[in-house]
């Protein structure tokens, strides 16, 4: 959903240097705030040259949550060439914002994950994603990521150390049971929240928000889906088959990977909360202000 902003408000929210990089931007351009996102602010910009999305990145994503926006632009660009992501128009060299094409379509809802046909289509799209050749090294170490988040939370909130230790012990037991060493690393999206999946007018799927994309076990994309949306669990076998992973992974492996991604989401959200509390007094204005 988009909410059009008056020109003065748009220029207050978005630095002029960012707007200047949008093709065709001028006095007649229309700027709308797009819903979604806990860290970044996203806007649709319509100009005489076309329709574009401007994402202004919150510093929290890079500093505390592990995002790499220069890498994001390269990986999204490769996925766009395969037809599964919006084309990248411009990436700010300081990683403050990115411009990409706007894709018209319906944003998925949680209910879509309870429909076997939708799950199969998502699996087929992920099969395309996993076949894209990554243009840059982007290694992904899920165990190291979990340990890093847990250590940071434990330092800042000692009262949570016991729970963290228990969760990490369970994670250490699940990591080898995912069978990742038996699968070749591929490009994967890593954040398949429903708000990052668009059903285009032509009926296909396009994935947006590639800031956590990496190269690693493709099973993690499926695990991310099931961790976010347990209603998709009855269709796990269909998801494995449609993604082309059924010959390389078992449902038990997927179950262990799903547990790990559920923990990753929990630790990421806790880290985001801690960072937000720390910086509550210093932030950019938002469209809701």
Kindly describe this structure.
With about 290 residues, the chain is α+β, with helices and mostly antiparallel strands. The protein is about 40% helix and about 15% strand. It has helices at about 5-15, 15-20, 60-65, 70-80, 115-130, 140-155, 160-175, 220-230, 235-240, 250-280, and strands spanning about 1-5, 30-35, 40-45, 50-55, 90, 95-100, 105, 185-190, 195-200, 205, 215.
Could you name the key traits of this structure?
single chain; 289 residues; alpha+beta; Phosphorylase Kinase, domain 1; Aminoglycoside 3'-phosphotransferase, Chain: A, domain 2; 2 domains; three-stranded antiparallel beta sheet; 11 strands; globular; disordered C terminus
Low-confidence stretches: 280-289
Q: Helical percent range?
A: 40-55%
Mean pLDDT: 91
Shape: globular
CATH architecture of the largest domain: Alpha-Beta Complex
Q: How many domains, in number, for the residues?
A: 2
The first-level CATH class of the largest domain is given as: Alpha Beta
Task: Tell me the number of strands.
Answer: 11
